[in-house]
Specification:
There is one protein chain. The protein has 472 residues and is an alpha/beta fold. The protein has 11 helices and 25 strands. The chain has 3 domains: 7-58, no CATH class; 77-286, P-loop containing nucleotide triphosphate hydrolases (Rossmann fold); 290-466, Ribosomal Protein S5, domain 2, CATH 3.30.230.
């Protein structure tokens, strides 16, 4: 049976292969070197398709290496100096990497990458900022607003033609390439429209070859659009092609921006970067603990402090609650910072195990700064905040509450307790309420100014904090 030959195009200079003809090789940038070749079939013993044949192509000897012989320098990083951005990436930008930053319109992804371009240029890197959405004048106006001065090593190209971008890369030879956004670019060799899966994948593939060039590695940043479900628009295969997938979360009418990584081949995916959107651009919050709690000299009812663990960093968070009498058969349960099911579970624990009636009360829960409560370690702080509100008794100002609470009312241990307690002591807190056995006896002596209270059950703790009350 005859085997159909597959046509491919191979660069005569470097051997780069493509299923489509392009005028300039994406790998070595040589012009008019892509020649038509054919995959040659050969007999294969039990491999390939049902006919026993499979397509085989020659491999250059210099491209096949032993894994033990490959030299690796540990990954050269470009530290931008934007602390929260570098933290999420794992310490800086890897020079032979491709990353994509996705966010809703107006979240600040273009602003952040323009600030990154400025920092990279100040360290001697040439930067190409290509935009298919904005004109050169729009980019210039944003730069004048957010940058103290515009560095001469930042080059701007406003176009939707991927071919022009490849030519600009060849002309300027940048170390950092920013594409805003990848869904707006198109290759002239393909007939599909910009933003189609074919165009998006082929444009990304061309940039991937440029970033991974072993002779001259570069860092490439793409921006992407999010759908209504907060997922990256386009084909999901795009996420597999890039090394890092970043997402910027922003609530409407809120200044806070949170940068996270759902995929990172060069670092952890648990880190979170905090920014404030100001007139001068995005400002990194270097000490988020001071931002997510209210500085008070006098205690107020309904406020409780806890310690979250965002990535490798502990963060103090303030939980605020408001409880009022309900005059309807179905009291409202409003939580801006956590899942409603989790709030209802904690209310049930407080009613049954803490012996506080809330069946006829409206409950509103939120956090200072809008930080989300996703850890189970916040459950104790939520319960004591609700109890403080319903009993109209404030909690001590310099105390924190760290621990999970089970359905039995017993306090549970949480990970990284010593790290959380060290952050509380560093910020001047004097009392910490944790689960029994949460701190090893030989480690208690390291906390000199922080008194640790180990609690077994929620009910004795509530009686200690707010005084006794009758059993339901």
């Amino acid at each position: 049976m005859a085997v159909k030959k597959k046509e491919i195009y191979r660069c005569a200079s470097c051997g780069y292969e493509s299923v489509k003809w392009v005028g300039q090789c994406p790998a070595c940038h040589a012009w008019n070197q892509m020649n038509l070749v054919e995959d040659l079939p050969r007999e294969s013993a039990g491999l390939g398709n049902a006919s026993g044949t499979q397509a085989v192509r020659a491999v250059r000897p210099d491209r096949l290496k032993r894994l033990s012989d490959i030299r690796y320098d540990g990954g050269k990083r470009l530290v931008t100096g934007i602390s929260e951005f570098d933290r999420v990436l794992g310490g800086g930008i890897i020079m032979d990497s491709m990353s994509i930053l996705a966010a809703r319109p107006g979240a600040g992804k273009s602003t952040l990458l323009l600030q990154v371009a400025q920092k990279a240029a100040e360290q001697g890197c040439r930067v190409l900022y290509a935009s298919g959405e904005e004109s050169e004048g729009q980019i210039r106006r944003r730069a004048e607003r957010i940058l103290p001065h515009i560095h001469e090593k930042i080059f701007v190209l406003s176009t939707s033609s991927m071919n022009e971008v490849l030519g600009a890369i060849y002309d300027t030879d940048p170390q950092l390439i920013i594409m805003d956004s990848i869904q707006t670019f198109a290759l002239a060799e393909l007939s599909s429209r910009p933003g189609s899966p074919t165009q998006t994948m082929e444009c990304t593939s061309a940039l991937l070859g440029i970033a991974k060039n072993p002779q001259k590695p570069r860092a490439v940043f793409l921006t992407g659009q999010l759908t209504k479900e907060d997922e990256l628009a386009g084909v999901r295969a795009l996420e597999h092609m890039v090394d890092t997938v970043l997402a910027m979360d922003a609530d409407e009418n809120e200044e806070l921006r949170m940068l996270t990584a759902s995929k990172n081949r060069f670092g952890s995916t648990g880190e979170i970067g905090f920014f404030l959107m100001e007139e001068q651009g995005l400002l990194a919050i270097d000490n988020p603990s001071e931002y997510f709690m209210t500085q008070r000299s006098e205690p107020v009812t309904g406020s409780a402090l806890t310690v979250l663990k965002e990535g490798t960093r502990p963060v103090i968070a303030e939980v605020e609650s408001l409880i009022s009498q309900s005059f309807t058969p179905y009291p409202s349960r409003i939580a801006e910072c956590m899942r409603r099911d989790q709030l209802n579970t904690l209310i049930s624990i407080l009613e049954q195990r803490g012996r506080l009636p809330l069946y006829d009360k409206n409950v509103v829960l939120k956090t200072t700064g809008g930080i989300k409560l996703t850890e189970q370690s916040v459950n104790l702080a939520v319960l004591v905040s609700l109890a403080s509100s319903v009993r109209e008794t404030p909690l001590p100002v310099r105390s924190v509450y760290i621990g999970d609470v089970g359905l039995t009312g017993e306090l549970k241990k949480v990970p990284s307790m010593e790290l959380r307690l060290r952050e509380a002591e560093r910020l001047g807190f004097t009392d910490a309420y944790v689960a029994e056995g949460a701190v090893r006896p030989d480690r208690r002596n390291q906390f000199t100014s922080l008194k640790i209270h180990e609690v077994r059950h929620i009910f004795p703790l509530l009686r200690e904090l707010f005084g006794g009350w009758n059993v339901l």
